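[Help] Beginner question about ligand-bound structures

Sorry if this is basic. My supervisor gave me a protein sequence and a SMILES string for pyridoxal-5'-phosphate and asked me to "get the holo structure". I don't really know what that means in practice or what format the answer should be in. Inputs are pasted below exactly as I got them.
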Amino acid sequence: MDDLMDKIGKKLPEKGIDRDEILKMLHKLAESDVDYKTGRTWSLVYHAGEAHTEFLKQAHGVFFETNGLNPMAFTSLKRFEHDVVSMTAHMLHGGPEAVGTITSGGTESIFLAIKTYRDMARRKRPWIRRPNIVAPVSAHVAFKKACEFLDVRMITAPLDKDFRVDMRAVRRLVNHNTILLVGSAPNYPYGTIDPIEELGRLAQRRHLPLHVDGCLGGFMLPFVERAGYPLPLFDFRVPGVTSMSADVHKYGYAAKGASVVVYRSMDYLQHQFFIETDWPGGLFASAGVLGTRPGGSIAAAWAAMLAFGEQGYTELARKTMETTRQMQDGIRSIPGLAIVGRPDMTVFAYHSTDKALNIYAVGDLMEEKGWHIDRLPKPPALHAMVTINHQDAAQRYVEDLRASVEYLRAHPDMAQKGSAPMYGLMAKMPLRGMVKKNVLQIMKQMYSPEGRMPDLSADGDTARDPLVNIGLKALQWWERFRGS
Ligand SMILES: *Cc1c(COP(=O)(O)O)cnc(C)c1O
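Answer (accepted):
No worries, everyone starts somewhere. Holo just means with the ligand present. The predicted complex, written as structure tokens, is below.
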């Protein structure tokens, strides 16, 4: 099989390969991926057990070949989309007028929201030349990406001492070209909910729309609340909120490729639609970014929501919150460690409060123990996205963390080894332009005709161009800080 694998990929095989052989290769290649099923990875995959995964595959499989491009052709998919949007809107207290669409993920939901408000502003405030949005600096990087793609300026507001957006800063930053305010419920880095009620009041006073990014929290917060945890208002109950994004493929435990963008009414959603009447291919209308849309993801989102229901999601939320609290209590009991801010749900970061304790070195030691650890730059911290799959891993995680901290205190020179100095450098790195240039260089290599994967393990290779070294390190950083 290895012989065969070496030959594959330069061009199409002359003769088709036996399908059983191909399946074997797929399984072999999957072995080198991160191990997410045992709860040692803290992002990227939301796994609710084998039985649920099998169920999702079946639901996905029934609609495997279908295409959500034309809702007239696949009325089943239209039904699923309508139901998923309605159920999500209801969950978020959207009211009787709420409408929305299923998208391929949080990024598309955010793109569409910004596009919608940009086009709405073009209609209603045509004098605006350079539209901007005002968003917390902790808002997901997809906002930055969407703004760059859509030629909208992103103004970022700093956070207060509790790691929520600083409202005084937001008020100051809104100007005549502002077309949208943004808040997160919660944000990815710290798991804190921005003051949505205050943002809502400001939005109403300035006659601006307000998008709440609930990509992470949309399918968790409503049930955290139901489970009895006190939370600030974060959804359409706040009058100024005009839209929300919520990812079914995160805490909704659906198949990947499913998020929802919900608007308070059609007054907003209509600006999202694209209609072309003059194309030689015929009349074309679409509600989102994609043309062809995989029907399987839409069907699996519907299936997941029906399978869990309110009680199921509440039970998941209750257990996941318990696991989170157990981990946080454990972390707080380790001298020198503290939770960053006061996270509202099941995602949080923790940092070192002791100068002698390098948190990135703690991360390295955890990785040696088999955990896949995500890092944050500001403040230097480690990150955890807790899911239902982490119940059995939490206690061990805290024990390993305690042991790692103790080991580091006994061997302080550890902080000079491994990747810790690099993360320290990256967190402080003043030369962002240089980092960007070097990451670009590496991406060009990765996507070159040869498709070279950079060798991330080659640390401290002094023979290499020092700029490339910094780029590699930046890439290593990026590999662990991308927010999913
Ligand atoms: C994951 C995430 C997004 C982006 O969603 P994708 O599905 O990865 O495109 C946006 N906002 C927050 C808070 C997220 O956690």
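A couple of things worth pointing out: The longest helix spans residues 295-332. The chain has a mean pLDDT of 92. Feel free to follow up in the thread.
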